[in-house]
Amino acid sequence: MPQIAIIDDNVDLSGTLKKTILHYLKKFGSDFTVITQQPFHDIGLYFDYVKDNEICLLILDERLNDKPSLDGVPVDYLGNQLVLELRKQLKDFPIIMITTFADEDELLEKESEFEYMLKRDDITDDENVANLYIPRIIRAGQRYLDSNNKELTEYNELTKKIAAGEISKESIDRLEALQVKLELPIIGYDDRATWLDQYETHLNELEKLKLKVERMLKDS
Amino acid sequence: MAKRSGDELISQLKTELSNDITNYRSILKLSAELSKLDPKYQRFSIDAKTLIHLGRDSIKDHTTALIELVKNSYDADSNKVEVEIFTKDDRDIIRIADNGFGMTKDQLLNSWLRIGFSNKRASKLSELGRRRTGEKGIGRISTDRLGANLELITKSKEDGIIGLKVNWDDFDVDGKDVFDIDIELTYPSSIKIPDSLGQKSFSGTEIKITNLRQSWALKNIENLYYELSALTPPFNEVQDFEIILNNDVSDIYSKKVESDFLKASEIELTAVYDGTGAEILYTIKDKYSDKETTQFIKWQQILGMLPKRMDKSEISEDLTLGPVTISFSFFLRDASAVLGSDLKLADLRAFLDNNAGLKIYRDNFAVKPYGFPSSQFGYDWMELGDRKARNPAGIGRGDEYMLNPNQLIGAVFISRDSNPKLIDSAAREGLVESEEFSELKALVMGSILILEAHRAKIYPLIQKKKKEKQAHSAHKESIRIQEKLGIVKDDLNAIRKEIEDGNINTLTFLEPLASSIETVDTIKEEVDVTINDLLSWQRVLSGLATMGISSAVFGHETESSISQIKGSINAARLELLAIPTNLESAMEELQKALKSSRKVAAWGAYALTRVQREKRIKRKTQVIKTIKGVIKELKPVFDSSTIQVNVIGEKFYTTTYPMDIESILVNLLTNAYTASLLKGGIRKINIDVQKEKRDKQDGFYFTVSDTGPGIAKEFEHMIFEPLFSTKTARSSDSKSIGTGLGLTIVRSITEELNGEVSFGTDSVLKGAFFKIWLPKID
């Protein structure tokens, strides 16, 4: 099930936001769910978090450094700093910024890093704005999932071709690009013979196993 | 005395009871002793001293004690009270005598002698419809405040004369029970009470207090006079309640107590209708002009002014009610009413509470229920309160303004002979609501409207005057001072010239020198006042600036709380609208909203108390207490950013402006807060308060240190510069929302107080520390 994740140090605020977004998701017929997460001290953890939880959209709070995080002490970065780090790997990932304050200059400078920048009250207190933005948020998440899907399909077909020996320089380059984008482990494909040998060994072993089983059945 | 057994006591008691002469004291004593042997029930006894303490604790001073007794006379429906205070020539005595209803023997023994009993509690109004003024039932014990010996004589229509004597010193002994003290009953043959309107009175009470406890100085008598005057009715014509003060301290105050409060009125209006024709003569006088204005107003005009709501069907076009005089005094109930007079605001209010209302006097006697607080409809018979409630516009609204009934003392004078058509109602108290009575009401209402119109007219002028008074700006002051100094300079120059010319006649110097010195003296005072004004102004501005700076930073917490409130309420609404409703989740959101609203309220309280007047007054201040107070108020802000604030240090006092300490502290805290947020992990702010001598000068310091990144070397030399801020310096990862004024204010206040500021890196917390040293003044 694809999920929207809210990264916020303030669990009260994120709880309310989650509830509100869930309401609108239901209203607009989306089957996304929403989870909340307090900020990680180690920014690297966000990448696993996104992958493991099937996240299709991130909502970041700007002021991440107020409240204690999971280990009891607050983190030392803000939303506008976190997004720069996340963009190093999640290049096309939809990220939305939620702010409580109107005067976050340094955040405004980084507006281009976000899908949308919203005031918290716009979602939690203004039905008109929420009605306008929630469908956009849903579409952004869906778009990510769709393109992610399309790319996975393409990747699949490319690997099949390569396996069948239809190999070209372009398809190998494209495959490698997709591997980076989809964050898949990079494997080489030029040792096809080795792979086939291994495949044959496996088949032989299975054949032997089959004979053994048949013999046992006869004996009994 | 050896303890007697129960049997012994019973037999002794029996003997006493069968004696021909009843020894009450002995019987009482025996039965009291016997009752102590009761194995099943015991009773409280009361130390006689308690009574004395009760009296002394509940009464502020001896003037108040005496006033209590006069109030009792008022409540007893007397119309004349004599108060005598003699302190000289061995005849020290206080005597209060009234011609009220007196006390029956039963009342004296069962009510007066019962401490804490007051029938005034049961009924707030006397038979005459007076609002009873005393109520706690402590007037009698308050006499102890006045003197050691009390003699009370009272005469009632029912029982004749009876009296008692109390020696309060008997009570002031350790270990005695109230019960043990005998109060002697007396049966005097005569009583000296004031007459009633020239007739001999048939009842009344006379109290004589001797062995006076305190001396009565002129000041006390003066006070007493003013407090008594609050009890007397405002109109001299009215013989409702009269107090005669007689004393040997001050001749000036040995007289009939007259109400002085009318002179505190804003506006006085008199309307006289002589009973013929269609014109009424109005006289209006207000506090702000010396002249009174007089004008004739036609009855038709008055009818035209009356509100539409008023029923005019019974009012004829011609006045038929006969001669009437209406007298109004309109009061403000605030300090401006007594400004420039020797009256006290509290006394004026008491006077208004006693006398406000519109009374009708027939042949100088008040007609019930008009203006009497006894009946709901009778008291405000012109329905002024109702009218005001319907249209509460303030005076600023000009024409729409309506007065409050508690601001008005009014009297309508009529007489039996010349107003024969204003007759008593047979069915109930009051006058028959005849055509003439409707005319009277219309006339009174018209007069009120004229008074209100006058107030609305003069109000803008008063406001203008007030503004002119205030416009004494520092700039104007400095011009005035310069002008005066110019004169001094000219005078001194003239003297120099005389001396240079070899003219050394000392006499010619004397006059200009003397006048110069005088001028310099006045200037000195004026400069002092001006500078003090400016300093106090500066203090307020610093406080406000500090408030502003801290709001910019701490205010974020409020913003997010408000955001939480709005969000939670909306979420709760959505949860309740959902099908099925999600009550639990809605409740959770409402809880969050509540929690956040408390935070907002706390912030509001913090903001409100920042520039409180009392904080701008120099006084003995316990520094650590002041600091802890601020920390307590800001705690929610620090908590929400996970910053621990610790205050440690010594307790001591210094004489200073609490606001200065607070302004310095809040600015430093604001910086420490911003700095702490720049780092993750454990965040702390430590405050340490200690005494420290510098250059033999007693002093103290407080430090504020934090876990932030500290002050960058390259900024150290500029941090106190106005408008410098790490924000304007564009430090790469700074998040400060600085105005660049905080530290400038800190330095300016510290220097103003002859103190010093230093800063550096805190060895424990690794962030910045600021240390403020100030001289300690005892």
How would you portray this structure in words?
- The complex is a heterodimer of chains A (220) and B (778).
- Helices cover 55% and strands 12% of the residues of chain A.
- Chain A is of the alpha/beta class and 220 residues long.
- A 5-stranded parallel beta sheet of chain A has the order 2-1-3-4-5, with helices on both faces.
- The longest helix of chain A has 37 residues, at 127-163.
- Chain A starts with a strand and ends with a helix.
- The longest helix of chain B is centred in the C-terminal third of the chain and has 72 residues, at 506-577.
- In chain B, the strands form 4 sheets. In chain B, strands 5-4-3-6-2-1-7 form a 7-stranded mixed beta sheet. Chain B has a 7-stranded mixed beta sheet with strand order 10-9-8-11-14-12-13. A 5-stranded mixed beta sheet of chain B has the order 16-18-19-21-20.
- Chain B folds into 5 domains: 1-43, no CATH class; 48-259, 2-Layer Sandwich (Heat Shock Protein 90), CATH 3.30.565; 264-470, no CATH class; 475-532; 617-778, Histidine kinase-like ATPase, C-terminal domain (Heat Shock Protein 90).
- In chain B, α4 (62-75) runs parallel beside α8, α15 (506-577) runs antiparallel to α16 (583-609) and α16 packs antiparallel against α17.
- With 778 residues, chain B is an alpha+beta fold.
- In chain B, β9 (279-286) and β10 form a beta hairpin.
- The A-B interface holds A 10, 12-13, 15-17, 19-20, 23, 41, 63, 65-68, 73-78, 81, 100-101, 103, 106, 120-121, 124-125 and B 556, 559-560, 563-564, 566-568, 570-571, 574-575, 578, 585, 588-589, 592, 595-596, 640-642, 677-683, 733, 735, 737.
